Amino acid sequence: MPDNSLDYKAWSNAVFSHLHRRELLIVLNLLTDEASRQNDTTSAERVAHMTETYHWMLRYFVQGATDPDRMKIYADIMAEAYTMTDILAESRASTESHDYVYTQKAILTSAAGGIDRLAILEESLEQTASAESLTALLDISMARHTAVEHEQLQKRLFNLVWLKADSFQPEELRHLVFNSRLRIDDRCLAISALTLYLLRRFDERLMVLLCDFCEIPDDELAQRALVALIPLLIHYDDRLGWFLNLELRIRALFDVPELRKAARRVLMQMIRTNETEELVREMKDEIIPQMTSLAKDFRQDDTQQFFSDDPNEMNPEWTEMLEKSGLGDKLQRFSELQMKGSDVYLTTFSTLKQFPFFSDVCNWFLPFSSRRSEISEVFTEDDTPTSDDFLSLLLDSGVMCSSDCYSFCLFFLQVDPSQREKMRKAFSIEKRQQQDLLAEDDVLGRSRRMDRLSNSYIQDIYRFYNLFHARSAFFNPLSTSLIFHKTRLIQLVGWSQEDCLEIAEYAFSKKLWSVASSLFRNMDRTINSGANLCQKIGYCCQRLKDYEGAVEFYQQAEIFDPNNRWTLKKQACCYRILRQWEKALNTYRKLNTLQSDNISILTQIGYCLIELQRWNEALDYMARVVYSLPDDVKICRAVAWTAFRSSDFPRAEKFAGRVLEMEGVLWQDFLTLGHILWAQNRLTKALEAYSSAVRLADGNYTIVEDALRFDAPVLSEVGIDISDLPIVLDSLHGIEM
User: Fold this and answer.
1) N or C: which terminal CB in the chain sees fewer CB atoms within 10 Å?
2) Can you list the residues of the chain whose pLDDT is less than 50?
3) How many CB atoms are closer than 10 A to CB 549?
């Protein structure tokens, strides 16, 4: 049993572990001891009350009394136990922990003169927003001063909610977020701060409030709340079932078809973040080095040779160079991934997160606004992009997340003013593509806009949890995306079979075999879809190296579609890996009836027969294969060995000799030839072959000797008197000496 000397994380994890196993008496004792250790009389009274209630419930249960409310009482006690664990762990962490989060909490608490009431802070934000709008028309310097004041209030709001949300009534925060007189970025920050708080500490009231925020008419706020809610439901799956009011609220929220669809989209976008690391690796290790290398072929002093007589015609050699390098295909794939929402900009902007702007947690979650004091110079009258300028289009299109937009502008400010116009001209090549994207948004409407909003925000989140200097102090909600299928998320949201199938297909396309397999297994298998589903589950199992499971599902697929060649090939492959050679042989023979004289299938039949030591049959098949592939060294080796085991020594010698004339000769090839010659009583030649094997094995006599001893039973089976083996070895050793 854990003791109270553990640090707060270990203590709370131990209690949660007992709660997961529903060991409630142990939990109550741990909570009692911890409340006493902290000298927290309020918590001690709450724990004592639920302990007494539980003991009475147990007493009635033992006495056999009828108690229709027993399970409700039990659920209430479990919920209260989770809550008290959070309260006591947070209390201890606030006094003991030196983690970044609790250091910031201590700084916030000790700050003199700070605004700690949400109502006053909300009023101040309204006033500065209004003043900023007025002064912008009259006095630029005053407008900037007001903007800075507003930004300080925003930071205060974010820190208060992130670090001390339990200090406020949910209704206060509700009023602030629903207040349309506030700027949208103020309200967005409040939702993000609430998310950070809830990821650190569960609160049923605030979780219900987050559900309410998902129904706000403003899409940007609603999407931000939904992006927060999905990982929270996964993260707190263990306890949600005990908080009945919250579960009812969640189910009511997702009774709306549009929200169920939006939740599915958000989950798939979260899953997509798992490919970002691989995209970053590919960009850093492959694409950028290739671009650098290729650039050497486009030296400026050789420019003239690349142009033809037509000044507008590009040299076809450029295209040829791109095709040969493979870079063009990779860049095209990255472009397609970007269009689908993949995060292809992390490599570009990760190095631009060192600006002081990103030292504040608040700024990683800030929606992009040109009014921010840190970047306002980019948009001054002397340096204002025109409405059709690429810079404006880039920042407004949603192609880049807000965090990257700030990075871009901060970098832009470091560029010499004389170079900024050149940069804009260079960027203008992308202008049409961005305009097309925005036009497409207008056509597709609200659904596409919400898709871009949620995807952009998820990219902001990804950057914070991967690039923030104190990221180790935070739980990364995106990490839950690969375990959602092990939780009750699907049931809570109420996704249909069609929804789950779409998520499963998406996971399958991203090679997330465990996720896809789990979802596919819960699909209804009709006559039309059964074979396809079973094939995919089998393939997932195969990629997860669960070959027995793969065979099981391939067999089920075979019931729906008995003569599907793909299924049979995969099934036979799994049998081979499991070394179930008879089953593999039968499956390959069935394939051969469907696709007669296929060289690959004949080869596999031959190999199965070799493993089954049915040498004469194997030799018949391998002879047919080698007729079609006379120069395949592996096939020739197999024929030589099979003929040897069939005692067809002339044929064995013929193919062993052919192997030695090919590239990639191994020392084992000379060993095989030696065996064949010894079987024909040509011992002198056999010793020469064995000696060649030693030389090709870098003079390692021992390895050849061990191989000869290992093959002794085989030599005996083909009629060689192995009692002569010691003499042969000594003779070989004498030759090598």
Assistant:
1) C
2) 1-4, 287-288, 291-292, 294-322, 325, 327-328, 330-331, 333-335, 339, 381-388, 390, 429-431, 443
3) 17
How far is it, in rounded angstroms, from Cα 334 to Cα 329?
A: 9
Alpha-carbon distance of 178 to 184, in angstroms, equals: 10
Specify the pTM. 0.81
| CA–CA distance, 512 with 505 (Å, rounded to integer) | 10
Angle between helices 565-577 and 530-543 (to 10 degrees): 30
Instruction: Please report, for residues 81, 644, 648, 714, the alpha-carbon distance to residue 679 in angstroms, rounded to integers and kept in the order given.
Output: 80, 9, 10, 11
Tokens linked to 240: 């949600």
Contacts with 208 (C-beta within 8 Å, 6 or more apart), sequence order = 170, 245, 246, 249
Contact 371, 143 (CB under 8 A): no
| % helix, strand, coil for the chain, step of 5 | 75, 0, 25
**Helix (H), strand (E), coil (C) string for 505-561:** HHHHHCCCHHHHHHHHHCCCCCCCCHHHHHHHHHHHHHHCCCHHHHHHHHHHHHHHC
How many angstroms from the chain centroid is the CA of residue 19?
29
Tokens read off for 15: 């209690």
What 3-state DSSP class applies to 182? coil
Q: Which residue has the tokens 């832009």?
A: 412
The pLDDT tens digits for 562-605 are: 999 999 999 999 999 999 999 999 999 999 999 888 899 999 99
Q: Which residue has the tokens 């099979």?
A: 642
Check: CB of residue 551 under 8 Å from CB of residue 575. yes
- 711 dihedral zone (left: phi>0; alpha: psi -120 to 50; beta): alpha
Alpha carbon distance 390, 435 (integer Å): 9
**624 CB-near residues (< 8 Å, 6+ apart):** 602
DSSP assignment of 594-627: HSTT-HHHHHHHHHHHHHTT-HHHHHHHHHHHHH
177: number of CA atoms within 13 Å, CB side? 30
Integer angstrom CA distances of residue 211 from 207, 232, 250, 447, 476: 6, 11, 7, 20, 20
Q: What is the pLDDT of residues 2-43, one digit of tens each?
A: 444 568 889 999 999 999 999 999 999 999 999 999 999 999
